[in-house]
Design goal:
Layout (H helix, E strand, L loop, with lengths): L4 E11 L3 E8 L2 E7 L10 H4 L4 E6 L7 E8 L8 H16 L6 H13 L6 H12 L20 E5 L4 E4 L10 H9 L12 H16 L7
Helix pairs in contact: 2-4, 4-5, 4-6
The chain binds zinc ion.
The site of zinc ion (ZN) has 8 residues, from β7.
Length: 222
C-alpha cells in the first residue's frame, strides 16, 4: 500500500476515553499517532499499542495523524519472562526516543529494527552493545578509533571512554581488551553471528560511560 510506514512502538499514553497516542520510531524518525479504538477489546488496536512491537501502518496526513490501519510485523511479547532481554529492549527504546530529528532515519531504522527482532534468539548484551555503539554516529559523537586522541600515533593499545577514544603505547600503559571490539562494532556491517563476542559487561560499562560523558544520556544496565 502507498504511504505505508514501518515503525517500532516506543510507548503510548491514554487519550480520551478509548484512545491512545502512540509514540513510534520509524524510517522517517520519531512520530506520534492517535489510535482511536486502541482500548476496545474487540477489534481494538492492541498490536499497535504494545511496546516493542514492530508494525507497518497507514496514517492520516495532518498535524497529529490518526491511525488508519496497521499490520503487526514482529512482536517481542515473549521476552517478558527474561529480565535481561527486557532491560536491553528498554534501553534501546529509550535511546530511540532521543535520536536527533535530522538523523538519517532511513538508514538507522532498518539496522535497529533488524537487531531488535533478534533479541529473542541472540545475546541481548551483544545486540545492545552493537546498537549503542552504532547509534553514536546519529548523535554526532564519533569515538576516535584510528589514531591516538593525544598524539595521533597509530600504535593503539587503550580505549578511554571519558576521553572519547583510543590511546597509543606512549600515552597509556593500560592495554584495553575492548578497543578492537569498539572498532569492529563501530565500523563493520555484518550479520550478528559474524560479529565476534567479547566481555559484554566490560564493553557495556564503557559504552555507558561514553553516553554519560559525551551525551549526558543515562544507560541503565542491570
Ligand atoms: Zn599517543
Amino acid at each position: 500500500m502507498n504511504n505505508e510506514i514501518e515503525g517500532i512502538i516506543l510507548s503510548s499514553i491514554d487519550y480520551k476515553e478509548a484512545s491512545k497516542i502512540v509514540y513510534l520510531y520509524t524510517n522517517i524518525g520519531n512520530i506520534s499517532v492517535k489510535a482511536l479504538k486502541a482500548k476496545k477489546i474487540k477489534g481494538g488496536d492492541l498490536g499497535f499499542i504494545t511496546t516493542g512491537n514492530i508494525v507497518s501502518f497507514v496514517m492520516t496526513n495532518n498535524n497529529l495523524p490518526t491511525l488508519i490501519e496497521y499490520h503487526l510485523k514482529d512482536t517481542l511479547f515473549d521476552l517478558t519472562t527474561n529480565i535481561n532481554k527486557i532491560n536491553a529492549l528498554s534501553n534501546i527504546l529509550n535511546i530511540l526516543k532521543l535520536i536527533p530529528s535530522d538523523s538519517p532515519h532511513n538508514l538507522i531504522y532498518p539496522m535497529v529494527s533488524k537487531y531488535i527482532s533478534l533479541l529473542k534468539d541472540k545475546n541481548e548484551k551483544k545486540i545492545l552493545s552493537i546498537i549503542l555503539i552504532k547509534l553514536l554516529y546519529a548523535f554526532g559523537v564519533n569515538p576516535i578509533l584510528k589514531e591516538c586522541i593525544n598524539c595521533k600515533n597509530t600504535n593503539l593499545i587503550d580505549f578511554n571512554p571519558r576521553l572519547g577514544g583510543s590511546l597509543c603505547n606512549n600515552c597509556s600503559n593500560h592495554k584495553s581488551e575492548t578497543l578492537k571490539y569498539w572498532k569492529i562494532y563501530y565500523y563493520q556491517k555484518m550479520e550478528i553471528d559474524s560479529f565476534p563476542d567479547c566481555d559484554f559487561d566490560l564493553l557495556l560499562n564503557e559504552i555507558k560511560l561514553y553516553y554519560q560523558f559525551h551525551l549526558s544520556i543515562k544507560i541503565n544496565i542491570i
